[in-house]
Amino acid sequence: MNKGALSFTREIAVRFNEADPLGIVWHGHYVRYFEDGLDIYKHGYSVPVVKIDLDYKKSLKYGDRVIIETEFIPCHAAKLQFIYRLYNAVTKELVAKGSTTQVFLDHPQNNLQLINPPFFEAWKQKYLGAG
């Protein structure tokens, strides 16, 4: 993580329904791990992923514990950018890394927002001192 970056770390267990019959986590669930923790819908917006980069290093298996590191990358545009790293909680090995770009859509119209929503501007000011 970058020094002074706004980041969040969370540990979760790989759930039974996320693994295939061999006990290996299906690749699509890694993106879901990336998104754990976002709660923007309550503000009247959704943030669909419009770009994703995902580099798999090792497989996760049912019963593994995963450390999810999420780093927010500030920008002036009306979008969210994150960098992620997933680690095996026991071995501390990097199992995947990636990034996402997400845009704001309002509800219920689902219009693309060209400026940052007020709640997000307030959040940026509070945590980043930026507008």
Q: What key attributes describe this structure?
A:
131 residues; mainly beta; Thiol Ester Dehydrase, Chain A; five-stranded antiparallel beta sheet; 2 helices
Reading off the top of the CATH hierarchy, the class is best stated as Alpha Beta
Whole-number mean pLDDT: 89
Content of β-strand = 35-45%
Structural class: mainly beta
Rg value:
16 Å
What is the CA–CA distance across the termini? 23 Å
SSE string, helices as H and strands as E? EHEEEEEEH
From the coordinates shown, what is the CATH architecture? Roll
Total DSSP E strands: 7
CATH homologous superfamily grouping: Hotdog Thioesterase
Catalogue the unreliable spans.
none
Q: Helical proportion?
A: 10-25%
**What is the overall silhouette?**
elongated
Number of domains: 1
CATH topology: Thiol Ester Dehydrase, Chain A
Widest β-sheet, arrangement of strands: 1-4-5-6-3
Describe the main β-sheet briefly: 5 strands, antiparallel
The number of helical runs is: 2
